[in-house]
Write a structure and sequence with these properties.
This protein is an alpha/beta fold. It has helices at about 20-30, 45-55, 65-70, 85-95, 115-120, 130-145, 165-170, 175-190, 220-235, 275-295; strands at about 10-15, 35-40, 60, 75-80, 100, 110, 125-130, 155-160, 195-200, 210-215, 245-250, 255-260. The termini are close together. Residues about 1-5 have low confidence and may be disordered.
């Protein structure tokens, strides 16, 4: 982190006051590099709006219109709504030139997975943070793709607690699958890929868990792959503290499998909600990197 602490924090706005937006708000409040100057949604009685007000954060129920109207006082916009809404929001924000960090699976432009391509994302106006499952699994899939140049099939299965998956996320299941698969193709160079999302109603809620499996006829150096996975795990943990590999790479016949889980910090939801944490932490990594660059 830069030692120049006399610079003002990056002024950010959040549109979307549901689970992801509220979790993100609490992370922004804890960051010395960021300041939330507007928390905008559409329901005055939403728990997120009420929390923001109780913390003294400016709020609005005019949604993206409030952000556009105050664009001159904002440095970056987070979108934590739905894929459908994000399309409209980006159309409104693009002419302002404001950086737009999209936490929905709309995928309107460049993918950003901080562990894989953070540096090349810092000059982009629009960034797609893929999906929670994409942030958790694609870096590990990338490790396998580097170890095995010929992958016949790649599958990602992500399981999250039902209580942590809000209405907007449930409305975007098709977009979630498509966007995660597109990121897998882009970052891993595979042609056949499949994404499965499991919403588990068990009580107490399960910790987010992700399995990554590939089929390859190629002989893979498992020791080298395990070393690569360990390095990737450490990199992701630098911005997602609850991320961990629970099953290192194992080979059974032509199949290689890795399993990871993500425990949240418990900012807005209980710690089992790693699916919230990993997408908001990824968004924070981008915003804080922009803020630090501005201070250098």
């Amino acid at each position: 982190m830069s030692t120049q602490t006399n610079r003002a924090p990056l002024q950010v706005a959040i549109v979307g006051t549901g689970n992801i937006g509220t979790d993100l708000l609490l992370k922004v409040e804890a960051s010395p590099l960021l300041d939330c100057v507007l928390f905008a949604g559409r329901r005055a009685e939403s728990p997120g709006i009420e929390l923001a007000r109780s913390h003294g954060v400016p709020t609005s129920v005019a949604g993206i219109d409030a952000i556009v109207a105050d664009a001159s006082h904002i440095d970056l916009v987070f979108d934590a709504t739905s894929a459908e809404d994000a399309i409209r929001h980006w159309a409104a924000i693009e002419p302002t030139g404001l950086p737009f960090v999209d936490l929905t699976p709309a995928h309107l432009g460049k993918f950003c997975v901080p562990a894989l391509n953070l540096d090349e994302c810092l000059d982009e106006q629009y960034l797609s943070m893929v999906t929670c499952g994409g942030q958790a699994a694609v870096p590990m899939a990338h490790c396998i793709a580097e170890a095995a140049t010929e992958i016949d099939y790649l599958e990602i299965v992500s399981a999250s607690a039902s209580a942590s998956v809000g209405p907007a996320s449930r409305a975007n299941l098709d977009e979630y699958v498509h966007t995660t698969e597109q990121a897998t193709i882009e970052f891993c160079g595979v042609r056949r890929t499949k994404t499965v999302l499991v919403i588990n109603p068990a009580e107490p809620g399960i910790v987010m868990r992700n399995s990554i499996a590939v089929s390859t006829s190629e002989r893979v150096d498992l020791d080298a792959l395990r070393a690569s996975v360990e390095t990737m795990e450490k990199l992701i943990r630098s911005y997602v503290p609850g991320y961990r590999v629970v099953v290192p790479p194992v080979a059974t016949g032509d199949r290689i499998t890795i399993m990871v889980e993500v425990e949240g910090r418990g900012d807005w939801f209980p710690r089992y909600a790693g699916n919230l944490d990993i997408i908001t932490c990824a968004g924070m990594a981008v915003a804080e990197a922009r803020a630090e660059r501005g201070r250098s």
